[in-house]
Amino acid sequence: xxxxxxxxxxxxxxxxxxxxxxxxxxxxxxxxxxxxxxxxxxxxxxxxxxxxxxxxxxxxxxxxxxxxxx
Length: 70
Fold this sequence. Notes:
With 70 residues, the protein is mostly beta strands. It has 1 helix and 6 strands. Strand 4 (42-47) and strand 5 (52-57) form a beta hairpin. It starts with a helix and ends with a strand.
């Protein structure tokens, strides 16, 4: 999965939450683009409610999908 594809989701206006699926990790739902930093080889994702962050390898991203309102 390319960094450009992730960047497209992060830069959408208005922002629409999305889910990132990884090869060997639980999926991550992104509700706030300010908590995600796209780097050259890694993806930094913070969770403000838990005071937690994680670094993911971009090579492990297998799918990105929009989250739709229920």
